[in-house]
Amino acid sequence: xxxxxxxxPKKHKLIVEKDVAVxxxxxxxxxxxxxxxxxxxxxxxxxxxxxxxxxPYQKDKLWTPPPDLEEKANxxxxxxxxxxxxxxxxxYALVRIDSRGSGKSLGTSExxxxxxxxDTYDAIExxxxxxxxxGNVGCLGISYHANFQWRVASxxxxxxxxxxxxxxxxxxxxxxxYHGGIFSSGFLVSWWYLQAAHHLLGKPNAYNPEAxxxxxLWNYMRNDLDSEYWRLKxxxxxxxxxxVYSVGNWGGHGLHLRGNTESYLCAASKHKxxxxxTGSHYHPxxxxxxxxxxxxxxxxxLKGIATGIMDEPPVKLEIRTGGTLKRYPFRTExxxxxxxxxxxxxxxxPTTNKPGNGKTAEGKISATxxxxxxxxxxxxxxxxxxxxxxRTGVSFETAPMKADTEITGPIVLNLWVSSTSEDMDIxxxxxHVDAKGRDAPELGQRGEPxxxxxxxxxxxxxxxxxxxxxxxxxxxHAHNERWPLKKGEVVECQVEVISTSIVIKKGHKLRLDxxxxxxxxxxxxxxxxxxxxxxxxxxxxxxxSKPTYLxxxxxxxxxxxxxxxxxxxxxxxxxxx
Length: 577
Known about the structure:
This protein is of the alpha/beta class. Helices cover 17% and strands 29% of the residues.
């Protein structure tokens, strides 16, 4: 790319303003740190666009990155945020805000709330009016600093010109708190505990002793069905009209990835891009390749520079070819899901009626529909309620692949189930097994090898679908009422399996674990094992009239390794405000 096609670094003095007061509409004040360049030539009136973040992680808390990060440690690094020493020389101001009730911002803490979005709206408009600002504001950050972007964009602040949510959950109920209606306690409990400790036992205790005072976990468990409580905390796709570059991670199925793919499907924005990569939770964000992509996006929308980013295909994916912990090459596409996808049913057929030792599968995955009736039963609480990790339940495997087979896109698992209890938890884990029967691991978000390709979850009593929002490749569960099971009653459950991309190599197998608990590759995204599981027996059924199957997004082999070009009309850069 020509050097003039994006902002180049200049030797500007860095201005750092600490604890800037941000007035809010209700008379409250929150605090922000501002990093901006002091332009040497003041006569030309050059002003800065703004990259803004809001969160409870303390704007003053220094993050010391690992030595292998492409951006090196400096006194201004902050967790999941942009680096002032890279952005400010390129003509950007960075604003970091302590959300209400955290860090140096007083008030009542309510993480991931509608109030936080309203406060951020006010902050965006406040900073857009500063004499050093060009009036254009963008938002960029990882995780929590991505999640807030969906909510504030739904409110449509006039000065917000573009967002780039990097690995950002969007639906607080479905993406984070209740996977398929099952309480995702592992991450939430540890997250709340850690943030509370940082505030009450760390430095903020000296200047904000009431910080992070909330009853979040109780409120989350009390509101265990979807409702307006959760809608106010989540993206309103029909209200998000600002340009969106949504960035996900194939390893983020436990929290963020669903939000990134849903945004590309559902947001009302006319200008949308989607990128999905591999790697840890933060290394890809700070990579030089990624920073250039971020800069090109914001140069275009906040500075009006013709970077060419909107002339490129809108979808950019790392295609995992399996069994390596290194990054994969990107491939561009014209849409999501891919138009050439061959949505293919693969049927699950038990070959025994009881679980084995987990080393071999209890059933097969085949393109041939079942011709006979079969079933397999497993315990819902083997080893006690708190037994996590490994495989419980049963497994199904394909035959060795006759050729490299690419699976890229969302997945549906359609099950017919029954239980001796009034409810049943379904945990589905897809795994890539090599020719020797070993897992071909992928890189997890903590930088660890993981035996999981992707996952799906569903509490059987939550099987009710929202038919208007459901798609053939993505069931959408209403989660607004429970349909309890009757003892022995066989019901159909459509499980949403989080999107993935993997090439199952020739001679390798795809394995599906179905069980009552968290299994391989769960990490810290574990779930509460409720008392309805105690002593229960769960059964999977398969027959000609009640077929159990996976719907897999198979990508034709002849196209699977070739970049896809897009014949698009060239876009003009936006005019500077």
